[in-house]
Automatic annotation (TrEMBL):
This is Uncharacterized protein. InterPro entries: Glutathione-S-Trfase_C-like, Glutathione-S-Trfase_C_sf, Glutathione_S-Trfase, Glutathione_S-Trfase_N, GST_C, Thioredoxin-like_sf. It comes from the Eukaryota. Belongs to the GST superfamily. One of its GO terms (molecular function) is glutathione transferase activity. Homodimer.
């Protein structure tokens, strides 16, 4: 049996996991939840994941895991035929982990701080404070990419899948200008050629459909 992944397609973290699965050739059984109907807060789902977050993974032996970063590391460690996406070398892996934590605590967190009031509280458009926060994130990433093709080195890792999914979402709300961030813009262009990028593109289209009408 294939592992089961509970998802909402527009989610950046979901898309990162889907890109990982594609990269390692792993088939997942996808179960899409309707959050507006509260399907992520049913007693059955809360028993499985009390944090009621998506994505949530249920492996074929009943093992349950949530948080996209943890899921990606688990899938590569358990199913990939090589460690290239999550290297076993301690120092190389530590840098990948640092980038994953940066995505979680800075990139994706800033994105949600900008979009949550728009999606759930009726706020209209992105204000100057939001724009400044976005540019701070972009500046960090531009620095990370100095002398590197990918976010933690010259090879693609699971950290790239997190950054790619988060930053392509960010780009919808606050445009990434190539003149200001040439390395970042080039990075996202290279990402489009990755095997499995289609998994990000499909969900990104759903994300755009949600967010674009809020940008007046």
């Amino acid at each position: 049996m294939a592992p089961t992944l509970y998802v909402i397609p527009a989610s950046s973290p979901v898309r990162a996991v889907l890109m990982t699965a594609k990269a390692i050739g792993l088939n997942l059984e996808l179960k899409t939840l309707d959050m507006s109907a509260g399907e992520h807060t049913t007693p059955e789902f809360l028993k499985m994941n009390p944090q009621h977050s998506l994505p949530t993974l249920v492996d074929d032996d009943g093992y349950v895991l949530w948080d996209s970063h943890a899921i990606m590391a688990y899938l590569v460690s358990n199913y990939a035929t090589s460690d290239s996406l999550y290297p076993s070398d301690i120092k190389t892996r530590a840098l990948v982990d640092q980038r994953l934590h940066f995505d979680s605590s800075v990139v994706f967190r800033t994105l949600t701080q900008i979009l949550r009031p728009m999606i759930f509280q009726g706020k209209k458009n992105v204000d100057q404070k939001d724009t400044d926060s976005a540019h701070e994130v972009y500046s960090f990433v531009e620095t990370f990419l100095e002398g590197r093709e990918w976010i933690s080195g010259d090879s693609v890792t699971i950290a790239d899948f997190s950054f790619i999914s988060s930053l392509t979402s960010f780009n919808v709300a606050v445009k990434i200008e190539e003149s200001k961030y040439p390395k970042l813009a080039g990075y996202l262009k290279r990402a489009e050629c990755l095997p499995g990028y289609e998994a990000n593109k499909e969900g990104l289209e759903a994300f755009i459909a949600i967010v674009k009408p809020l940008l007046k």
